[in-house]
Amino acid sequence: MPTNIILLGPPGAGKGTQARKLIEDHGMVQLSTGDMLREARASGTETGQRVAEIMDRGELVTDEIVIDLIRERLADGGTGFIFDGFPRTLAQADALGSLLKEQGQAIAAVIEMNVDDAELVTRISGRFTCGGCGEVYHDTTRPTRTIGVCDVCGSDRLLRRADDNAESLKVRLLEYYKKTSPLIGYFWRDGNLHRVNGLASIENVSSELSRVMSSVPQPA
Ligand code: AP5
């Protein structure tokens, strides 16, 4: 029976990569606020344009916008969510707790992925993503088998994110340490915080996450 978990970690820690593995291995549903906001910016609406400017600077989008996006998705029902990149502030964490409670649900585990800053820079500067299916790659650690073609869906639309540059990354890291890292204490207090070494290989991090998943109590 799938449970709800949060992947918590700085930009480039591997949250998106591991979320995709959890979907494959445990049949879970990824809720990535980064992906939702990229969809909003692509829509070209006034809100989308505001979101784009904030994201390109590397700053956090307002709690109000992000919480509304999550509220809409949770209203569709379901469980077994992987919250990827959400919550990122104390206000978002409180809102998530209340929204889940309204549905008789809770967070089973918060998994903090630890990676040092130098490695984050290397990961972010080499990242590219398939525009067709969203698969995440890296120039050196996870290249496509055929240059320019996605291994999973065969698309040749391989993209680099506008905010994956040194200047934005500096702001994103600052935002993480200032506004998101206090959540480590917030969830530690609840007793469901788990830590994994995000510096390990993608496969080893994945095994560690599976070990955590099997240790958390399943919902009745
Ligand atoms: P978002 O899209 O959430 O980006 P992020 O949190 O900065 O995280 P990333 O997607 O950059 O990294 P990741 O941890 O998923 O790493 P990945 O698996 O790709 O947010 C973007 C922006 O949207 C924010 O800056 C903000 O403006 C806004 N936003 C989003 N959510 C918000 C919220 N809740 N509130 C307010 N604003 C919000 O891996 C990175 C690279 O490393 C890849 O190339 C991968 O192949 C490689 N890699 C992964 N794991 C390993 C490994 N173990 N070893 C070697 N390489 C690895």
Report what the structure shows.
The protein is of the alpha/beta class and 220 residues long. 49% of the residues lie in helices and 15% in strands. The protein contains 9 helices and 8 strands. It has helices spanning 15-26, 33-42, 46-57, 63-75, 90-102, 117-126, 166-180, 182-190, 202-215; strands spanning 5-8, 29-32, 81-84, 109-114, 127-130, 136-138, 158-159, 193-197. A 5-stranded parallel β-sheet has the order 2-3-1-4-8. A 3-stranded antiparallel β-sheet has the order 6-5-7. β5 and β6 (136-138) form a beta hairpin. The longest helix is centred in the last third of the chain and has 15 residues, at 166-180. It is globular. The relative contact order is 0.20. BIS(adenosine)-5'-pentaphosphate (AP5) binds next to α1, α2, α3, α6 and β6.
How are the SSEs ordered, and which strands pair?
Blueprint (H helix, E strand, L loop, with lengths): L4 E4 L6 H12 L2 E4 H10 L3 H12 L5 H13 L5 E4 L5 H13 L6 E6 L2 H10 E4 L5 E3 L19 E2 L6 H15 L1 H9 L2 E5 L4 H14 L5
Parallel strand pairs: 1-3, 1-4, 2-3, 4-8
Antiparallel strand pairs: 5-6, 5-7
The structure holds BIS(adenosine)-5'-pentaphosphate.
